[in-house]
Amino acid sequence: MKKQEYSKEEVEDKIHDICIDKIEEEYRVFWRSDDSGTHVCVYYEEKIPRLAEKLLPNNFMDTRLILITVPFGYLREFYPLG
Q: What is the pTM of this model?
């Protein structure tokens, strides 16, 4: 069976849909890479919401997904919206 391939845009759009419609916490999405290849990171401030752990699994749309916490105010300071 052939594996479904998703574009980065499709993966990001789905993450945004979930984060905006269901999780409702401030977040940012970034693509990163390491020795294991490219992956998507979703950043939250202070703690990872329980719904994020449930709705954004480590293998999300055949892409490695990592949930990351940063200090309060970090996203606004270093990655402001708009």
A: 0.91
